[in-house]
């Protein structure tokens, strides 16, 4: 009985899943995303084959993980890489077709009689009523008017005394909340004349601003000027070179990468930030490892009392979420009300400017990051030290060696190779430590000799973020190019890490 049920519900579930998937693919295609719909169709087909074919049985457990890796890792990488070869920015968001359509839909008010306007409740929707000075009345079909979005509707001529409209007219207090949506509505009258809202109780006649020409250019019907699409810059431009917005996306090849290394506006801050990024990641690894290994040696000292208590207390910074610790330190280092400055002023009479002085801001970042990272190094070193044979220390004691000799001649050399790949991983992590910079300094203080948003404490990743989201032009293409460069750097570090891990494994054998 159970076998028969299984033979029935498994194909039924597959059919239902396939139908639901096809429905979603159709919705994506209708929404104007044919490429995405094609990709989803391919994934759906592979999924149906994997879960229905006996030959692909082994992949049924791997398919979800492979799909997740493709969607959340591979696809963002490819998309970011592709954007780096375009002029994508806040000024060039649209496709060429959409930008051209935007200009063709633009209107301007023309001379002529305006229309008296009133809005009427039609149950769950509203109808627009327009009256010309000659007495003719027009009304639209019911409109939702739930949110402001461009909408073109047709109006039909009605009798002036239409009871369905005159009895439900909205008063001014009810009309005002609907004005944002009404401003987006264009009404087309039977004579093809169009009108838009021009006052609280008035619609004015409008006309399309641009007319399409056979050669692809657009003519401004108000002043006669002609604009053409410049496929090099991604803007429609006038004869005098003036660019009009919105722009559109075009391919720019390696221009964004050239700008990073050749254009002074971006090259100079990029080089300075790159040097600081390497120094920050390297010094963080050195400081956290130094503090961690010293504490690990002390906590492995058998004569030390209350070692368990010390281990718990020293591990606490790692147990507290990092973003909470960073915000706490931001308050502690506050120049006006922070406890650290209060103590320094009471003891030494100084009040450092942690957030405005470049070197102090960098020092503060290293202090905080060392605090956040040393417990991890301490735990690693404690485990590695435990693996060192005690006979070595006993022989060293017989030879009369002291603690420092034991540390530099036995402990450090024996843990250096196993921990090297982990140190490289820590370097790669801090190379992209965006959270610390964003929460503690925001990359500031800013450089005073640059026009792009960049600061003394910015890392490459935060510099990329600021170019993408804080710059006036929001240059997403340039930010994507910088992200690609950072990815290549981190990938090289990962390869080095894997090579060192492989060498250590071979030596261990």
UniProtKB/TrEMBL annotation:
Classification via InterPro entries: MalF_N, MalF_P2, MalF_P2_sf, MetI-like, MetI-like_sf
Q: Which UniProt keywords apply?
A: Cell inner membrane, Cell membrane, Membrane, Sugar transport, Transmembrane, Transmembrane helix, Transport
Q: Where's the ABC transmembrane type-1 domain?
A: 274-497
> How is it placed in the membrane, per its record?
Multi-pass membrane protein
Which residues span the membrane? 12-30, 36-54, 61-85, 273-301, 308-329, 364-385, 419-440, 476-500
* Subcellular localization, as worded in the UniProt entry: Cell inner membrane; Cell membrane
Predominantly, its location class is membrane
Q: Which PROSITE patterns match?
A: ABC_TM1
Record's subunit section: The complex is composed of two ATP-binding proteins (MalK), two transmembrane proteins (MalG and MalF) and a solute-binding protein (MalE).
Hey, which family's this protein in?
A: Belongs to the binding-protein-dependent transport system permease family. MalFG subfamily.
Give the protein's function: Part of the ABC transporter complex MalEFGK involved in maltose/maltodextrin import. Probably responsible for the translocation of the substrate across the membrane.
What's the protein name? Maltose/maltodextrin transport system permease protein
* Native source organism of the sequence: Parachitinimonas caeni
């Amino acid at each position: 009985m159970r076998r028969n049920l299984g033979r029935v519900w498994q194909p039924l579930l597959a059919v239902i899943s396939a139908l639901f998937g096809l429905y979603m693919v159709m919705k994506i295609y209708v929404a104007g995303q044919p490429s995405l719909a094609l990709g989803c169709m391919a994934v759906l087909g592979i999924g149906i084959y994997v879960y229905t074919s006996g030959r692909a049985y082994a992949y049924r457990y791997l398919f979800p993980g492979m799909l997740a890796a493709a969607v959340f890792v591979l696809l963002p990488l490819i998309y970011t890489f592709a954007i780096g070869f375009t002029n994508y920015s806040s000024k060039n968001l649209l496709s060429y077709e959409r930008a051209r359509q935007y200009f063709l839909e633009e209107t301007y008010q023309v001379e002529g009689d305006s229309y008296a306007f009133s809005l009427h409740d039609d149950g769950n929707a509203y109808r627009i009523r327009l009256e010309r000075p000659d007495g003719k009345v027009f009304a639209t079909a019911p409109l939702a008017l739930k949110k402001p979005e461009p909408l073109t509707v047709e109006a039909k001529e009605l009798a002036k005394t239409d009871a369905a409209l005159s009895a439900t007219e909205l008063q001014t207090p009810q009309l005002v909340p609907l004005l944002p949506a009404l401003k987006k509505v264009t009404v087309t009258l039977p004579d093809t004349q169009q009108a838009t809202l021009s006052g609280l109780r008035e619609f004015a006649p409008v006309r399309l601003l641009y007319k399409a020409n056979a050669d692809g250019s657009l003519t401004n019907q108000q002043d006669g000027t002609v604009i053409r699409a410049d496929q090099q810059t991604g803007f429609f431009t006038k004869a005098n070179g003036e660019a009009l917005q919105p722009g559109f996306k075009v391919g720019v090849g390696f221009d964004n990468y050239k700008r990073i290394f050749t254009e002074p506006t971006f090259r100079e801050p990029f080089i300075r930030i790159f040097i600081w990024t390497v120094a920050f990641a390297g010094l963080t690894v050195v400081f956290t490892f130094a503090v961690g290994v010293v504490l690990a040696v002390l906590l492995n000292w058998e004569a030390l009392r209350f070692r368990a208590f010390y281990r718990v207390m020293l591990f606490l910074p790692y147990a507290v979420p990092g973003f909470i610790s960073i915000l706490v330190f931001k308050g502690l280092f506050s120049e006006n009300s922070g406890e650290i400055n209060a103590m320094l002023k009471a003891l030494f009479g100084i009040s450092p400017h942690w957030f405005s002085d470049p070197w102090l801001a960098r020092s503060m970042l290293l202090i905080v990051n060392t605090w956040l990272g040393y417990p991890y190094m301490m735990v690693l070193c404690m485990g590695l030290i435990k693996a060192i044979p005690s006979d070595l220390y006993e022989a060293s004691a017989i030879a009369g060696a002291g603690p420092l000799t034991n540390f530099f001649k036995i402990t450090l050399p024996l843990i250096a190779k196993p921990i090297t790949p982990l140190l490289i991983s820590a370097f790669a992590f801090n190379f992209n430590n965006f959270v610390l910079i964003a929460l503690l300094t925001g990359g500031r203080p800013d450089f005073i000799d640059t026009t792009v948003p960049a600061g003394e404490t910015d890392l490459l990743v935060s510099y990329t973020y600021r170019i993408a989201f804080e710059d006036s032009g929001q240059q997403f293409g340039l930010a994507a190019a910088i992200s690609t460069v950072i990815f290549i750097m981190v990938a090289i570090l990962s390869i080095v890490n894997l090579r060192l891990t492989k060498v250590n494994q071979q030596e261990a054998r």
